[in-house]
Design brief:
Belongs to the 2H phosphoesterase superfamily. ThpR family. It comes from Kitasatospora cinereorecta. InterPro entries: Cyclic_Pdiesterase, Phosphoesterase_HXTX, RNA_CPDase. 26% of the residues lie in helices and 32% in strands. The chain has 196 residues and is α+β, with helices and mostly antiparallel strands. It has one domain: Cyclic phosphodiesterase (Cyclic Phosphodiesterase, Chain: A). Helix 2 packs antiparallel against helix 3. Bound molecules: adenosine-5'-triphosphate and magnesium ion. The site of adenosine-5'-triphosphate has 12 residues, from strand 1, strand 3 and strand 6.
Length: 196
């Protein structure tokens, strides 16, 4: 199954972003983007790709251990940008050092489990929209004019959402089909709360 590890912001934070992003849908080029579904908005810590079902129990055991070794931390959604001319994203602010350490811990155990995860650097983001066609669709999508994605990112650049607590680590499953990818939480573990 297609797996990734993520932190899922609370619905209140997603609602705030959904409200803040609504005006973007009226901008030039917006109709040529695939806007991600707010219900599925997440923060990917590691992308694992296809993992044989037989390897999942050992992976879960390791992820559970990582969750217990990293503390809850405060984050907020903040700012926006794009990856090339393909992805419009929203960034994260706050105790991102804790988030970064959690992601490193996750990537380490994923590797120890013998799973090849994405080797790109960790760029904490939430994907708001993508340019390009959906999986399996031949439909030719017109490319965005240069700068349209950047203008959308600029419109959200100064936006900052409310602070919330990242308190759980999720092993997520992604199912690709003809429509948008469907994400479901396979298993979740609480992050540590240490007594002061
Ligand atoms: P779609 O592929 O339909 O555009 P998606 O990218 O959200 O949707 P997946 O490809 O299953 O669905 O990816 C699941 C999550 O992992 C997403 O957050 C995605 O951005 C991230 N992801 C996918 N591929 C990689 C990769 N090679 N490196 C880093 N993150 C990735
Ligand atoms: Mg993808």
């Amino acid at each position: 199954m297609r797996l990734f590890v993520a932190v899922n912001p609370p619905v209140e934070a997603l609602q705030e972003l959904s409200d803040a992003a609504a005006p973007l849908h009226g901008l030039s080029g917006a109709d040529r983007l695939r806007w991600s579904d707010p219900d599925g908005w997440h923060l990917t810590l590691a992308f694992l790709g296809e993992v044989p079902a037989a390897d999942v129990p050992a992976l879960e055991e390791r992820l559970g251990r990582v969750a217990g070794e990293h503390g809850v931390h405060r984050l907020r959604l903040a700012g926006a940008g794009c990856f090339g001319d393909r992805v419009l994203w929203v960034g994260f602010d706050g105790e991102t050092w804790a988030l970064r350490r959690l992601a490193e811990g996750v990537r380490t155990v994923v590797e120890e489990a013998g799973i090849e995860s994405d080797q790109h650097g960790f760029h904490p983001h939430l994907t708001l929209a993508r340019a390009g066609s959906t999986h399996g669709q031949r439909r030719a999508t017109r490319r965005l004019a240069a700068g349209e994605l950047q203008l959308m990112a600029a419109a959200l650049e100064g936006w900052r959402g409310s602070e919330w607590e990242a308190s759980e680590l999720h092993l997520m499953r992604s199912e690709l089909g003809y429509g948008p990818a469907r994400y479901t939480s396979v298993r979740a573990w609480p992050l540590a709360r240490w007594e002061a």
